[in-house]
Design goal:
Keywords: Membrane, Transmembrane, Transmembrane helix. The chain has one domain. 75% of the residues lie in helices and 0% in strands. The protein starts with a helix and ends with a helix.
């Protein structure tokens, strides 16, 4: 039962991280700052917030938290670099 719960948390967390990356790309494409704190009425919540929630859901230990954080920051930096290069 515990292993199924950990697997489910991992899948949900990865989905949140992926959605956060997608929103970050949309924010950058639309010219919004990457760390936009305001919630837009016709827009979307900050992608970074979704990534943080995904990391917290994925983390079952402190080591998992550190690894997830480093991987997510690396993905966000790569995404930002690629978007800036294309624009």
């Amino acid at each position: 039962m515990f292993t199924k719960l950990v697997g489910l948390r991992l899948v949900i967390g990865i989905c949140f991280i992926g959605y956060g990356l997608l929103l970050s790309a949309l924010e950058k494409y639309n010219g919004l700052p990457t760390f936009n704190i305001k919630i837009k009425t016709n827009g979307y919540i900050n992608g970074f917030t979704f990534m943080v929630v995904g990391i917290l859901i994925c983390s079952t230990s402190f080591i998992n938290f550190i690894i997830s954080t480093i991987a997510s920051i690396a993905l966000l930096l790569i995404e930002t670099y690629l978007i800036n290069k294309k624009l």
